[in-house]
From TrEMBL:
This is histidine kinase. SMART domains: HATPase_c (SM00387). It comes from the Bacteria. InterPro entries: HATPase_C_sf (IPR036890), HATPase_dom (IPR003594), His_kinase_dom (IPR005467), Ig-like_fold (IPR013783), Quinoprotein_ADH-like_sf (IPR011047), Sensor_HK_TwoCompSys (IPR050482), WD40/YVTN_repeat-like_dom_sf (IPR015943). The chain crosses the membrane at residues 722-742. Its EC number is 2.7.13.3. Residues 1-24 form the signal peptide.
Length: 987
């Protein structure tokens, strides 16, 4: 156990000493981040700006926030090197077991055309145009990076290292030299230089510097410079480093020889000691990255433009907490309660005074015109004259928060209330102040000030509106001649933390809603949608014509002339949350920070410092997909993560993503938290979407391009057009099938019905024929015999009765034959029969009969029962008139009124007393009640009126008389279906 502790201690102590030595430097090289290994072999900055790292843990990509490690299931070892990037954006590398891989669309692929199993060493690789070249025991391996097809050339010539020159590649192997210029063969070269027997390992740097190749020789620790002249490799010079050489790194503007003791720049002479480096690269921000075989991944950040300002005579443990510019000097308030006038040009303190015996920090400091300042500590407020160095305590005002002024008044917002201080005692001025603010403020004669005892936080006077804007308990109020009223924006109260008046406009920094600009003609809202970094603004500070915004995000400048946020200034590498106050003197900005007073030049940025942002990958339901396959997603694929890559390293955690998931009806922009690179959407509804995203760096603004990614989440299968069509088709087929079944049943029923009707009609016709042919003549013969018998003398009286009954029976038989006869089953025959029978009924009487028939009688087939009922109804009415009316005239009228049959029987007799009329049959017919009952069965109407006789009318719907039967023929559709299904044609 003791040995283990000693071993761990032996590892930790050197590393701590190393870190301490780095921190001692002004711009130190230090560990970049918590990388999982201390053995890093190679680095590469790709065309997008991402850092690629090759180590004994494999290959990783770093963007300043996320470090993504890559591997392949067929990878037999993790340790790798030789990072390259081809023109298609693929990253190539090899491991130390000889396998070659490339990363394309976030996936690691094994290059199977390079047979590592036949190799004795791992390859050295270079890119030459659109070709990847790799050394081999069997010649030179050449891969077309467009088609990814490879081949070996050189007749199995052994190759071990190579260097890319301007027009060809220099190759070495087994003390032999070759050149490759894209042709299918290797060109042999001769060598002119020192003896090459000094070392065991000879390796060319994979890049030449201005057509000068570099070769290292180990263990001798020698570096040779080589040039190619015609067909000869010529040694230009050599340098002995007398230690093991790790690598030679060639950059566009430098060459580094990395030994296990130090790294040497051949261009600048710079030496980096004791880091055992293997590679050096510079990112697009100007930071330098180093890979070390002992210390892992290291970084040297570019020099910050901010400088520490040391105030002479200030205690070492005292800090500046507030400041204000004054005649090219700075009035400073310190943590210990000192007021200091500092001249940056001479680096001298012109005066230093403690405001009170109690050490209380001067948190707020404001110039209020001339040589006067208001200084506020956490317990008291003071009026200071910088010229005379006099300090007067304002005893009634505690803990002032913000100040403003005009030529006649000073305005103070404090924890004890709102105060307006006239610069002189004047009754006229006091009346003016009272009227200006609608007598909302009280006047103190003793202190010569106006006050309102409400805790105030921020204050600003807006002369164009002659109004004072004050924040009471975070709610903004406007005080003018109308009095004190809440200030509203979009009908809602405004919660303000800071106010500033500049350039005829009032600026309002809100608690959580960005910034408002109050103008004479309205209010403008500046929010994250307009490029504002902070939703919460703590302080607004006017410096010349710029308004500095200190909020929850980094520093920003609002140009009051352009009326827009600007991002073309170089800012120091500092979080805005660490800045408490700032002001400008000359061309420099001084910032009060948590670590002291800093200054930096206010100059515009040079060069293109626009951010670059990329959509690295998309995960759908936590599965990575390629962009081409992510365009259309199923209904269940509705949880989507977008990973944005932003290669930025200096202050990567300050950078955030502004994004919008645009739909047809919504395009609201949102922001991620600073440092966050993933955007997650869950449970998205079906529809078309476009992700728009752009990275925002508080120091340099937005990225140069917006990421756009369109995709569609399809409707679920039960809502898809195909399913709806299939469902509609199935429903149509079901309906059609049901219709066919119904039609078949209908046709079968019709056939059965027609057959039954035919049988009934045949039977009726048979009965009518038999009664007419058999029974009728028989009855007529009996009637003749009765007539003859009556004529004999001594004829029995019963013969008369027999004759009468036979006559009545004959009439009834005639009615039955008429009713049964199929040929009479229509309305026309009914009406004519009624007319004839009534006429016969009245023949034996002296009553005059008048009959009226319709001109046109519809061809309606009526039922036997309805035909008989109507006939008996009319016969009974006429029979009653003959028997009881004493009439001399009877009129029968039949009329067709629309869909009804009207039968009217009128006489000129004594009329009918409905109350006395018989309601039941009297042996000769039916009574009035039975008559009504029969009419009701036909859904008809019976009307009886007396007007110089009886007027009886019956109104019967024709549909009640009509025979209910199937359609005589099918419609066109039914006929088509019947023909299609080959149904019987007689339907």
């Amino acid at each position: 156990m003791r040995k283990l502790l000693l071993f761990k201690f032996s590892l930790v102590v050197p590393f701590l000493l190393f870190c301490a030595s780095l921190c001692a430097q002004q711009n130190p090289i230090k560990p970049a981040f918590d990388f999982p290994t201390k053995e890093v072999y190679d680095l590469h900055v790709d065309k997008h700006g991402f850092i690629w790292i090759a180590s004994d843990f494999g290959v990783a990509r770093y963007d300043g926030i996320n470090c993504v490690h890559y591997s392949n299931p067929n990878q037999i070892s993790l340790g790798c090197s030789n990072l390259l990037e081809d023109s298609y954006g693929r990253i190539w590398f090899n491991n130390f077991n000889g396998q070659i891989f490339y990363i394309d669309h976030e996936k690691v692929n094994l290059l199977e055309s390079y047979d590592y199993k036949k190799e004795g060493n791992y390859p050295r690789m270079v890119l030459f145009g659109n070709q990847l070249l790799a050394t081999s025991d069997h010649g030179l391996f050449v891969l077309d990076t467009k088609t990814l097809t490879g081949k070996y050339i050189g007749d199995s010539t052994y190759t071990s290292s190579l260097a890319v020159m301007s027009k060809q590649v220099l190759i070495r192997g087994n003390n032999k030299w070759y050149a490759y210029n894209g042709t299918p063969t290797l060109k042999k070269l001769s060598y002119k230089g020192d003896d090459e027997s000094k070392g065991i390992v000879y390796a060319l740097a994979n890049k030449a510097y201005r057509d000068t190749a570099y070769m290292l020789i180990n263990p001798a620790g020698v570096v040779k410079k080589l040039v190619l002249q015609n067909d000869t490799v010529k040694q230009v010079s050599q340098t002995a480093y007398n230690t093991f050489i790790n690598t030679i790194t060639i950059t566009p503007d430098n060459q580094w020889v990395n030994t296990n003791g130090s790294s040497y720049s051949l261009n600048t002479g710079e030496e980096i000691k004791g880091l055992n480096l293997s590679c050096t690269v510079t990112d697009m921000e100007g930071n330098r990255w180093f890979s070390s075989l002992y210390h892992g991944l290291l970084i040297q950040y570019k020099k910050d433009i901010a400088h520490k300002t040391t105030i002479p005579g200030l205690d070492a443990d005292d800090l500046v907490v507030s400041l204000r510019s004054y005649k090219n000097q700075l009035m400073l308030g310190t943590q210990k309660g000192y007021l200091v006038l500092y001249d940056p040009a001479s680096n001298k303190v012109n005066f230093k005074s403690k405001l009170a015996a109690i050490a209380a920090p001067i948190n707020n400091l404001a110039w209020v015109g001339g040589d006067e300042f208001i200084a506020a500590s956490s317990v008291a407020t003071y009026r200071v004259n910088a010229l005379t160095k006099t300090i007067t305590e304002l005893t009634s005002i505690k803990t002032a928060k913000q100040f403003c002024y005009d030529s006649e008044k000073i305005y103070i917002a404090s924890t004890s209330g709102l105060y307006v201080l006239p610069r002189q005692r004047s009754e006229a001025l006091n009346k003016q102040i009272a009227a200006t603010f609608g007598n909302a403020l009280k006047y103190s004669e003793a202190d010569n000030n106006f006050y309102l005892r409400m805790r105030a936080r921020a204050i600003a006077y807006y002369p164009e509106q002659a109004a004072l804007f004050v924040t009471f308990k975070n709610t903004l109020y406007k005080i003018d001649k109308t009095g004190m009223n809440p200030f509203l924006f979009n009908g809602q109260p405004v919660y303000a933390a800071s106010l500033a008046y500049l350039g005829h406009r009032l600026y309002v920094g809100t608690i959580s809603n960005g910034m408002l600009i109050v103008e004479q003609d309205g209010i403008k809202h500046i929010s994250v949608q307009n490029g504002l970094f902070s939703k919460s603004i703590f302080k607004l500070k006017a410096v010349d014509k710029n308004l500095w915004i200190l909020g929850s995000g980094p520093l920003q400048i609002f140009n009051t002339e352009k009326r827009a946020l600007v991002d073309d200034y170089e800012f120091p590498d500092r979080n805005a949350s660490e800045v408490f106050d700032l002001d400008g003197v000359g061309q420099s900005i001084y910032m009060v920070t948590s670590s002291g007073l800093d200054n930096f030049p206010l100059v515009k940025s040079t060069g293109d410092k626009k951010l670059k942002n990329y959509l690295l990958y998309v995960k759908v339901n936590n599965q990575a997909v390629e962009e081409s396959t992510a365009r259309k997603l199923s209904y269940a694929e509705n949880n989507i993560i977008f990973n944005i890559g932003v290669p930025a390293y200096l202050k990567a955690k300050d950078i955030y993503i502004k994004y919008c998931l645009a739909t047809k009806g919504d395009s609201t922009w949102q922001t991620t938290e600073p440092g966050e690179r993933s955007i997650h959407f869950s449970s998205l509804m079906p529809g078309k979407y476009t992700l728009k995203a752009i990275a925002v760096d508080p120091r340099v603004g937005e990225a140069g391009s917006v990421i756009n990614y369109s995709f569609t989440i399809q409707e679920p299968w039960w809502r898809s057009t195909a399913f709806k069509l299939a469902l509609t088709l199935a429903a149509a087929l079901a309906i059609f099938y049901g219709y066919v079944i119904m039609l078949r049943k209908r046709l079968a029923l019709k056939r059965a019905f027609d057959t039954q009707q035919q049988l009934i009609l045949s039977e009726r016709q048979r009965i009518a024929s038999e009664m007419h042919d058999d029974i009728g003549p028989g009855v007529f013969a009996i009637q003749n015999l009765a007539n003859k018998a009556i004529k004999h003398e001594n004829a029995a009286p019963e013969l008369h009765q027999i004759k009468t009954q036979v006559v009545e029976l004959s009439a009834k038989i005639h009615d039955v034959i008429w009713s049964t006869n199929v040929g009479n089953d229509n309305l026309e025959m009914l009406l004519y029969y009624i007319h004839v029978q009534i006429e016969k009924l009245l023949e034996p009487t002296e009553i005059v009969f008048d009959s009226e028939l319709p001109d046109e009688i519809p061809a309606i087939k009526i039922t036997v029962q309805s035909r008989r009922t109507v006939y008996l109804l009319v016969k009974e009415i006429v029979h009653n008139a003959i028997k009881h009316s004493q009439a001399t005239t009877i009129q029968l009228r039949t009329i067709i009124e629309g869909d009804k049959l009207l039968i009217a029987v009128n006489d000129n007799g004594v009329g009918i007393d409905a109350a006395q009329a018989p309601t039941k049959g009297d042996g000769h017919g039916m009574g009035l009640g039975n008559m009504r009952s029969r009419v009701e069965k036909l859904n008809g109407e019976l009307s009886i009126q007396n007007n110089h006789g009886a007027h009886i009318s019956i109104k019967i719907p024709l549909d009640e008389l009509r025979v209910v039967e199937f359609d005589k023929k099918l419609n066109k559709w039914q006929s088509f279906v019947a023909k299609l299904l080959r149904l019987p044609a007689d339907v």
